[in-house]
Structure prediction request, 279 residues.
Amino acid sequence: MLVDFHIHTTASDGTLTPEQLVGEIEKHAIQYFAITDHDTIDGLKSLKEIPEGLLSVTGVEISAEFEKTLHILGYGFDLHDRGFNESLNELQDYRKGRNQQMLEKMSRFGMEITLEELIDEAGSDLVGRPHFANLMVRKGYVSSFQEAFDNYLKKGAPLYMDKKRFDPDKAIEIIHAAGGIAVMAHPYQTKLEGRDLEHLLKKLVSYGLDGIEVFYSQHTPLMIREYMGFASQYNLIATGGSDFHGANKPQIPLGVEVSEQDIQPFISFVCQRQRMHRG
Ligand code: AMP
Ligand code: ZN
Ligand code: FE
Ligand code: FE
Prediction:
């Protein structure tokens, strides 16, 4: 069956609006999905109605503090939980300050970009580095998106600025406090494997981690086997998603193919939450 529990929209660094995305989900006959924007649930909130027959669950992808990449997905939380909204707003306020500082740095490099242009490019006031990169290309300051990152925007490059992240235990805690479950996203991006990955996983489990993203567009069959092993060993729910970003990552299509048996525990959770939401 086709599912997708890892999708970005214009609310973060994807290129489809939540409404356009729902259209694509229907077109691709994806049965279950979740929108998981970076550090925001604004996209979900803007979505008024989901067509009948489509099943979705609330989602978010929180960047956690870690030497490499560590993203925690949250699912099934209450969209209107006060504390959760306040925590995410904290991250966004910090990001807005960061954008301002990056613009000032750019002008010192002779690149003139305004905040309005950035917001226009992003389609919302949630601006990220890919939006800077697109504008730099369009204005002729660099010749490609990748050049923008390699010469200016990647970690350690002259325009790079760190962003605020929660520690992994805090990310898990705020998801739980809002009634959701916490899932480790794309484990391969930690650049850890075997015992080292297991060590990190154990730590996350001690913080209350509920699941692991086993099925993912960039995971090899070998990775999938390893992560599925961890899922059964540590009693974690296996999830799956593409990490679709629209035209910002054109190599990643929507949807991942999973067997019903493998995804069943997560689907059960989704259905249970769905009933709770309908009240
Ligand atoms: P931000 O949240 O503003 O730090 O932007 C993070 C996004 O920038 C990621 O989701 C990627 O899409 C993109 N990105 C980060 N590093 C690179 C890189 N070295 N090359 C291309 N894109 C990158
Ligand atoms: Zn992204
Ligand atoms: Fe991620
Ligand atoms: Fe993602």
Observations:
- Residues 82-108 form the longest helix (27 residues).
